[in-house]
Hints:
Radius of gyration: 20 Å
Largest sheet: 7 strands, antiparallel
Strand content: 35-45%
Amino acid sequence: MRVRPILTVALAMTALVAPYAGAAPKPQIEDPAGDQRGSGDYDIVSVGFDVTKKAGKLKDLVVTFTLGSAPTMGSLPSYNLRGDVAGCGTFLLYSYTRAAGGMAPDHNLVFSGCGSETDPATGDPEQALTPTAEIKGNAIIYTVKFAEMPKEIQKATFDAMTAWTAPAEPVVGYTVADFVDEGAFDSAASTSSFKVGG
């Protein structure tokens, strides 16, 4: 019978594929644990991009910050991510916790260089969005719908990224450290890019 060799090959292929089934994507930013100033919720361990799809179409862009410890409200850390987007200039994600608990509602994802809005200072196109932000254990998960983003993002590549943490200003919530990484309590740069749908 010739069934046995075919079955043997099939089982071997299954053994090779199985360990990768459902594996989480490798984060674009990784950083040694424990290298931060301040408490563990300032410690960036990794930052990763992913997409969700519905009926084969792009649904959400998901950005996950994994930290040294769960975000605490007392230290009021801010979480920030900046980088380049091929065909769409640059992007900046900034957010912070609030003393009352959870993430502050006015975190933002701003694209500079494309979009349906206009930067009043430069006249260049831009688009500001408000992702959802959810705390799960040591992670903060940001989700933004592709339908709300500039059309250029549908095939974009996110690259040259830097993530950093810094104390948030307790009244307005954000400081200059949300926009530049000077004075950061922890910072890390990307070692790989992320291509949407790639």
